[in-house]
Structures are given as C-alpha cells and as structure tokens.
Amino acid sequence: MSLTYELSEIDSIAVQLLSKVKSKTLLFYGNMGAGKTTLIKALVKALGAPDLASSPTFSLVNEYQTAEGRIFHFDFYRIEDEAEALDMGIEDYLNTDSWKLIEWPQKIESLLDDDMQKLEIGVLDNGARKLKFC
C-alpha cells in the first residue's frame, strides 16, 4: 500500500497513516531530505502532543507527552554502530507501549522486530512524496 501527497497535505496524511498502521513502532526509511522528520512532526501533532516536534539528530531521542501517553522520536543518522543505541537504552524504549517513531532504522536493524511498521518515503519528480507501507 502507498500514499502520494504534497507537503501541504501532510497533516491529513499523518491522520490517515495513524489509522492504517499495525504497530506503534514506525520505522522511517528514505534518503536525506525525503521528508521523514516533516512527516514525524505531523504525526506528533496528530497524536495530540502540545509541543512542536523537532529533529533529535544530536540528542538521538526526543520525548513528547500526550493525554494518551508518550511519544519517542529517534534519529539514528549520526550513530556509528548499534552499540551507541544500546548505550542510550534503546531496548528499554522499544519495550514500552508508547509510540516510537524511528528515523534511519537501518542503523539498528538487528535490534528491531519484524512486526514493526516499515515506511519508505521517496520524493517524486514533481516534488510530491510517496509513502510506501513495507
């Protein structure tokens, strides 16, 4: 399944995405600049977080609180190996019932389960995005 959207439609795409995923752990694949962080910001908003989401590139994880619980947003672009993710406690995060939104999951592939929702974002020639459920 896939969704094609313009950036101006990001908020409605986030709501659609949340209604279709089978897991609270979402793995975002895509090239630099594909729109992973932009989509995650819209998801955090759609999940009811009062704070604006930002990229956790340097901190590795940002946490947001909603009325229903916590959201963890991870960005593993800068890590060199899985040991860094283990050192920051990724296993503890993964074992919670909270939403986990993970950018660059290929950096920690062996720590992830098959039942997590994989999403691939690509940029089309016209600038629209294509979101593929894998």
Give the SSE map.
Blueprint: E1 2-5, H1 10-20, E2 25-29, H2 36-46, E3 61-66, E4 69-75, H3 82-87, H4 90-94, E5 99-103, E6 117-123, E7 129-133
Helix pairs in contact: 1-2
Organism: Antarcticibacterium flavum
Protein name: tRNA threonylcarbamoyladenosine biosynthesis protein TsaE
Family: Belongs to the TsaE family.
Structure description:
One of its GO terms (cellular component) is cytoplasm. With 134 residues, the chain is an alpha/beta fold. It has one domain: P-loop containing nucleotide triphosphate hydrolases (Rossmann fold), CATH 3.40.50. The protein has helices at residues 10-20, 36-46, 82-87, 90-94; strands at 2-5, 25-29, 61-66, 69-75, 99-103, 117-123, 129-133. The protein has a seven-stranded mixed sheet, with helices on one face. Helix 1 (10-20) crosses helix 2 (36-46). The longest helix has 11 residues, at 10-20. It is globular and about 40 Å long. The relative contact order is 0.25. The mean pLDDT is 93.
Q: Give the ordered list of helices and strands.
A: EHEHEEHHEEE
Q: What proportion of the residues form beta strands (DSSP E)?
A: 25-35%
> The biggest beta sheet, please?
7 strands, mixed
The residue fraction in helices comes out at 10-25%
Structure summary, number of beta strands: 7
State the fourth-level CATH superfamily: P-loop containing nucleotide triphosphate hydrolases
The tally of helices reads 4
Radius of gyration over all CA atoms, rounded: 14 Å
As residue ranges, the low-confidence spans are none
Read across the widest sheet, the strand sequence of neighbours is 1-7-6-2-5-4-3
CATH topology: Rossmann fold
CATH architecture: 3-Layer(aba) Sandwich
Q: Any idea how many domains?
A: 1
Classification by helices and strands: alpha/beta
User: Roughly how many Å apart are the termini?
Assistant: 8 Å
The averaged pLDDT comes out at 93
